[in-house]
## 1
Amino acid sequence: MMELLSYSFMQRAMIVGILVSLVCPTIGLFLVLRRLALIGDSLAHVTLAGVAFGILFGIYPVYSAIVFALLASLCIEFFRKKYENYAEISLAIVLSGGIAVATVLISLGNTAGILGYLFGSIVLVTEHDIIITVILGIFVLVSILILYKPLFYISFDEESARIAGVPVKQVNVYFSILVAVTIAISMRVVGILLVTSLMTLPVAASLQIARSFKSALIYSIGFSVVSVITGLISSFYLNLAPGGTIVLAALTILLLAMFFSSK
Amino acid sequence: MKETIVKVRNLTFGYDKNTILENTNLEIKRGDYIGLVGPNGSAKTTLIRLILGLLEPDSGHIELFSQHIKKFNQWDKIGYISQNAREFNSSFPATVEEIVEGSLVSRPGFLNLFARPNRKKIREVLRIVGLEKHKNKLIGNLSGGQQQKVLIARVLVRNPEIIFMDEPLVGIDFNAQKTFYNFMKILNRELGITLVMVSHDIFMLMDQVNKIAFIRNKKLQLHEVDSKLDSLDKRKLLEKIYGV
Ligand SMILES: Nc1ncnc2c1ncn2[C@@H]1O[C@H](COP(=O)(O)OP(=O)(O)OP(=O)(O)O)[C@@H](O)[C@H]1O
Ligand SMILES: [Mg+2]
C-alpha cells in the first residue's frame, strides 16, 4: 500500500480520485431523488464533444468540457420547457447532439488522447489536473453546503418550495452548473463513460439501507470513497483502466447493500 | 369588521381560449373556514392556483393581505396542500422530522447548515398532528393518513395565517377523516388560522365551515353557513346552492 503511494502519479490519481468521490455522490443524490439521474449521462456525452474540441484546438480539455456541458444543460432546460411532460426527450436530444458533434470532431483530426478521457486513467493525471480539480471540487462542495436546504426542499416537493419562496429557478440553474463542473472534473480519473455510474451507484446502494436523509448522504459518500480507493488500487496492480475497476467496486457494494437491506 | 386577507375581483381565466372562470369575485376574511365545492372540472383547483400566483389570470385583480399579488412577498403566511400533494416520491429517504424541518428554510445560504433549526416548534407541530412517536420513521413507511399529517405539519411549522387544502381527504378512512376535521376545527377556532378546503363531501363540510363557496357557470357564489342550522335548513341551503 505504502509502496503504491510512493509513485507520484499514484498520489496524484488518489488526490483527484478522492475529491471526485466526495463530489459525485453528493450531486448524484439530488439528481437521483429528483429523477434526473440521466441528466448526468446526457451531459457526460456532451462532455466528450468538449474534450474532443479541446484536444483538437489545443485547449485544456477540462475547460472546453465545462463550457460544452454548461451549454448542454441550458439546452436541456430549453427542451424541457418544450416537452414539459416528457422530460426524457430533452435528455435524448442533447445526448444525441453530443455524440454527433463528438464523432465529427474526433474524425476531424488527431484526437488520440481521447481514450484516456473515455475510460479514465491514473497515469495521465497532471499537476494541472490536480490544481483544477481541487479548486473546482471545493467550489462544488461549498456550493452544495449553501444549496443543501433549498435543494432538499425542491427535491421533496418543487411546487411547495416555490410557494414557500425558494428561488427555484435560480437554484436549478446553479445546480446544473454544479453537475456540469462535476462531470468535467471527474472524467480524468473515472472516464466520461462511467461518470454517471459514480453519481448513481453509491446513491442506489445507500437508498437500500438509509434510515434518514442524513444517513443516505453519508452512506453515498462513504460507498463512493471506498469504490474509488479500491478501484484505483486494483487498477494499479492489475493494469486496468480505473473507470472500469471503480465502477465494478461500486457495483459490488450495491449488490451487497441489496443483499443485506431489509427492504 | 374582520380584515379581508384574500380579495379576488373580476377574475377571468382560461387555460386556452375556453374561459373557465369569468368575472369571479371572492373575499376571504381572517378566521374564515371556507368549503370550496363544485363538480369535477369546475375550476376549484384552478382558482386556488390563481390565488397562489401559480397561474396568471387573463384579467382581474388579486390581493393577498392587502398587497397586489405581483408585489406580494410574505409567502410564509400562506400554506398550500395541493390536490396531488400525496403523490410525492414515497421512497424519498427522509424521516418525518427531516421533512418537517426541511420546510423551515427556504433561502440558499451558507449559514443555513449551521443555524439551529427550531426544534421546539418542530416538536410542537408534530405533537399537534399526533406524529411525535413517528418522527424518526421514513416518510414512506407511514400510512396514507399519517403521510397526510406530515404534509400538514410541514405547512403548520411555518406559522401560516391561511391554509389552502385541495381535497386533502381522498383515500383517508372514515375515522381518520373525523380526526382530521376535529383537528381543522382546532386550527381554525383555537389557533385562528383561516382555512379554505376543497371537498366533494358537502354534507360533512357543512358541519364544519362558516361559509360555502360554490363554483357554477364559471362564477363563484359565497354562502354563509349558520352553525345552528338544522337538517331541513341545510337541505334548503343545498337546494339554493345547487339550484335544484
Ligand atoms: N393544465 C391544464 N391545461 C388545460 N386545461 C386544464 C388544465 N388543468 C385543468 N384544466 C381544465 O380546467 C378545468 C378546471 O380544472 P380544475 O382542475 O380547476 O377543476 P376542479 O374543480 O379542481 O376539478 P376536480 O374536482 O376534478 O379536482 C377542467 O375542465 C380541466 O379540464
Ligand atoms: Mg381539483
## 2
Amino acid sequence: MIEVENIGKTFDDKEILLGISGTFHAGMPNLIIGSSGTGKSVLLKCIVGLLEPNEGLVKYDGRDFTHADRDLKTEIRREIGMLFQGSALFDSKNVEQNVMFPLDVLTKMPKDEKLDRVNFCLQRVGLENTNHLMPSEISGGMQKRVGIARAIVNSSKYLFCDEPNSGLDPQTAILIDDLILEITQEYNMTTVVVTHDMNSVMGIGENIIFLSKGRKLWEGTNNEITHSGVKELDDFVFANKVMSRLKNAL
Amino acid sequence: METFRTYSKLVIEECIQIGIGSIFLVGLVATFMGAVTTLQTAFNLVSPFIPDYIIATVVRDMTVLELAPTIIGVIYAGKVGSSMAGGLGTMRITEQIDALEVMGINSASYLVLPKVIASLLMYPMLVIIAGFLSILGGYLAGVFSEILTPFDYKYGIQYLFNPYMVKFGILKSYVFAFLIASISSFRGYYTTGGALEVGKASTRAVTDSVIAVLIADYLLAEMFLTK
Ligand SMILES: Nc1ncnc2c1ncn2[C@@H]1O[C@H](COP(=O)(O)OP(=O)(O)O)[C@@H](O)[C@H]1O
Ligand SMILES: [Mg+2]
C-alpha cells in the first residue's frame, strides 16, 4: 500500500500539483487519470522520488519515503519497478542485458541465477528467445514488455507505469493492460498506472484518481466513473466517442 | 570493489567507442596536416641560405606544439564530443537517465565519469599517434615531391630537439581531453525537450568545447612558453 499525503509541487513559481492525497492498494492496478499536461507524470515522479515534492509526503507500507534517510531510501528504491512512457530501454544493451541490469546493480546474485531470473521474467511477459535482440530491433509493444520484465525482475513490490499503452495499437494496448493486471494480482504488487486511455480505465480501473489542472477532483471505481457528477471528469470521460455514444444510447 | 569493477568496465567500453569513433579521421587529418605543412613551408623558404632540413624541423615543431594537440582537439570535439552529448541527450529525453535514477543509481557519475576518464586515457594517445602520422605525412610529401632528401628530413626532425615541447604538447592534450569530455557531457546530460534539442545540445557541445580548447591553448602558451 502506498499513501500519498497532501503532495504539492511547483516549478519556478508555477503550481503544477496542489494538495494531492490518495491511497494505492496492493493487488490491484491503481489508476491516475486526466488529460495531457495536468501533472500525472509529475505526480508519479514525486511518488517514486525522481522529483522532490515541495510539500507533503509519500509512505510505502507505512515507511515515510520522502523524509527517509539514505539507507531507507535505497531499501525502498530496490522494491520499486517502473515502466516508462517510451519504455526507456537502454539502447546500447540487448533485451537480456536490459532486463538483467537491475540485478547487476542492485543484487549480488551469481550470474547463472540472474540469467534464470531474466529468462523467467521474459517468459512471463511472453518474450522467450528474444534475449539477444536490440531494443531498436523490436516493436513498440515488445519494448513495453521488456520494460515490464525489467521492472519486475528484482521482485519489486511496487510497480509504476507511465502511460503503458501510449503509442500502441488498441489490441496490443489491451494485452499490455492485461499483463499489468495479471502480474499485479499474481505477485500482490502495489501498482500505479498513469493513463488517459478510456479503454484502460474501463478495463482495469478498480481504484481511480482523477486529476485536473494539478488537483484531485474525484476518486472511485470504473463502475462509478460515468455518473460522478464532476463536470471536468464527464468532459474527460465522454470526450471518447465510444463512451459518448454509449451515454446517448442509455 | 564491486563499484570499481563496474566502473572499469564502463571506462573500457568508452575507450573502445572513442577509439573506433575517431582513429580513422584523426589519422587522416594528421597525415595530411604534416604533408601540407611540408609543402607550404618549402614554398615559403626561398632563401638559398636556409638549409632544406629546416623544413623538417618546422614540421616537427608545429606538429608537436600546436597541430597535434590543438587541431586534433577540434576534430575530437566534432567527432567524440558531439557523440557524447548526443548519446546523453538521447538518454535524457527517452527517460533512460530517469530509469537509472529510479534504480537508485547516481546517473551523473555513472554516465559522465567513465566518459571523462576514458577521454583522459585515449586523447593523449590519439595525439601521440597523430604526431607520428603528421611527421610521417611530412616525410612522404617532402620525399615524393623531391623537396628534400630522406636524409635531410631525418636530420631536420632531430635538429635542435627540445623534449620540453613534447611534454608541453602532452600536458595540453590532457587539459583538452578533460575540457571536451566534461563540457560535452554537461551539454548532453542537461538536455531538456525532444529530438531537436538533442541536436542543439550536440552542436553546443562542439562549439563550447572548441572555444574552451582555444582559450585554454592560449592560456597554457602564456603560462608555459612565454619567458
Ligand atoms: N521538469 C519540469 N520543469 C518545469 N515544468 C515541468 C517539468 N515537468 C513537467 N512540467 C510541467 O508540468 C505540467 C504537467 O506535466 P506532466 O506531468 O508531464 O503532464 P501529464 O499529465 O501529461 O503527464 C506541464 O505543464 C509541464 O510543462
Ligand atoms: Mg505524462
